[in-house]
């Protein structure tokens, strides 16, 4: 199961080989990062404790990872962006893949443009929440070195060299044109809640890069159809 793989992956893919983390640098890069920020929401408990990131996915819908919210089933959650706070009305967890759909009452949430499946070395961009802070970064798609236990179809995921800190799970990942590639769903070699990940990020600071598992929109759409999710 993909969800289990995100938590228990062994070192079966090539690690990031960049000596210095790739960072957004030109106007097009900065526009892509801003697009990721536009799609980013923060998932919180009812009392405002940060749980993770979420990605706007259409009117009244956001995506996050199942591993981030599965322990919160039956409890009240909310999502926040800037000064807007929306209660989560319903939550649906996928079985075959590591994502969850959060339903909120806000028809203004837009449907992002989906990206084509990115190729090796294509640069991707991400914005993610770390408590009340937002961090960002860019990095290339990494090639697969071997089959991954728990993932039946390697084409169902993308691995990219991107920043990872507590709260990154569920964050939007976009291409150079600002089209949505998918959501950050885990990291390689360690669990989603690896203690080596930075627990807090100072605004404007650089966040260490890891080999991040990205769950593409195509995989999410296909799973939604298979499982009858809306």
Automatic annotation (TrEMBL):
Domain of life of the native organism: Bacteria
Keyword Signal: yes
Pfam families, A to Z: Trypsin_2
Gene3D superfamilies from the UniProt entry: Trypsin-like serine proteases
InterPro entries the UniProt entry points to: Peptidase_S1_PA (IPR009003), Peptidase_S1_PA_chymotrypsin (IPR043504)
Keywords assigned: Signal
Signal peptide range in chain numbering: 1-18
Keyword match Signal: yes
Protein name, UniProt field: Trypsin-like peptidase domain-containing protein
Source species of the chain: Neoroseomonas oryzicola
